[in-house]
Structures are given as structure tokens and as C-alpha cells.
Amino acid sequence: MPYGQLPVLEVDGKQLAQSKAICRYLAKELKLMGSNPWEEAKGDMIVDYVEDMRSPIIRIFHEKDEERRKLQTQLFKEQQLPTFLKNLERDLTDNKDGEGYFIGDKMTWTDILFVTTISVIKLFAEKYNMEFSLEKFPKLSALVERVESSEAIAAWIAKRPETAM
Ligand SMILES: N[C@@H](CCC(=O)N[C@@H](CS)C(=O)NCC(=O)O)C(=O)O
């Protein structure tokens, strides 16, 4: 393992670490990048923002003090998460009125990373009894459906192993 950490992708006996480097490599191979440098930069901007949305989860998960964990979970649920989702709903709406994807006119790895992060938030919500729904964010909710029902992704979801947090 290059840095002693996961994830690691192995291709033809070579190893690649760092999740976003792996995502970008796979996106280029699978034609899931934006169509021009501006679209790719916007896609990267949204990816970094989605990563920021996910970061409190990691901190809370590693918090040993139960009282502090409860407070941080409440802050995440009531303030941080709604702000992130509101901004992401606006970003999505800015492109084709939110009827398609975050950038351009086809699905990119930015959409997939967002949908994957939502599934991590759902697992987190189950573990810590936190109410979570995308009800107030209809465009994001429809994006999750759109991505999860695309043929190859739906086939993977149907056969992937159960994941616990
Ligand atoms: N920036 C890295 C972070 C990788 C990372 O923190 N991996 C964790 C698992 S999700 C790990 O392997 N931790 C064990 C360790 O660091 O010893 C990435 O995005 O891939």
C-alpha cells in the first residue's frame, strides 16, 4: 500500500492510493468526467464541498465522549447538514433547472460521489438515531433516484455486500 491507508486501486499490478485520485482515474477511463475544463473545475468544486459535508461525520464517529458526540450530532443535523444541502440543491438547480446532473448534460463522477455520500449519511443517521431525509431538497432527492436507477449502478446496488458503519 503506497501510504499504508485504504482505499487502494490495483491496475495491472500497479497501486494507486488517495480516493479522489482513484475516482478521477476511473472517471477518465469510464467517460464520467465533465466535457471541458470549466465543467471539470465545477465538478471538482462540488466534490470538495461534498467532502466538507462528510467531514463532521468522521469527527463524530471518532469522538469518544458520548455527551460531546450528541452535541456534535445535533449541530450536524440542525445547522451544518441543512446548509450544505441547501447550497448543493442550488448548485444542482443552476444546471438545467436541476432536472439532470450537477454539471453538463450527463452523469459524472461528481453525481456518483454525492449519491455515495448520501448513503454514508443514511448509515450514520441509523447508527446515531439521527433523523435524516432529503424531503426538503426535491432536486437532490430526484438526483439520488436518477443515479441509483441508472442501469450499471442499479445492478451493483442489487449485488453489493451489506455495509455497516
Ligand atoms: N486522503 C485519503 C485518506 C485515507 C484514509 O484516511 N483512509 C483510512 C480508511 S478510510 C485508513 O486507511 N486509515 C488507517 C490508517 O491511516 O492507518 C483518501 O482520501 O484516500
UniProtKB/TrEMBL annotation:
E.C. no: 2.5.1.18
Domain GST N-terminal residue range list: 1-34
GO terms (BP aspect): glutathione metabolic process
SUPFAM superfamilies tied to this protein: GST C-terminal domain-like, Thioredoxin-like
Enzyme class: transferase
GST C-terminal domain sequence ranges: 36-165
Chemical reaction(s) catalysed: RX + glutathione = an S-substituted glutathione + a halide anion + H(+)
Molecular-function annotations in GO: glutathione transferase activity
Top-rank taxon, per record: Eukaryota
Annotated InterPro entries: Glutathione-S-Trfase_C-like, Glutathione-S-Trfase_C_sf, Glutathione_S-Trfase, Glutathione_S-Trfase_N, GST_C, GST_superfamily, Thioredoxin-like_sf
Keyword Lipid biosynthesis found: no
Keywords: Transferase
Protein name, per record: glutathione transferase
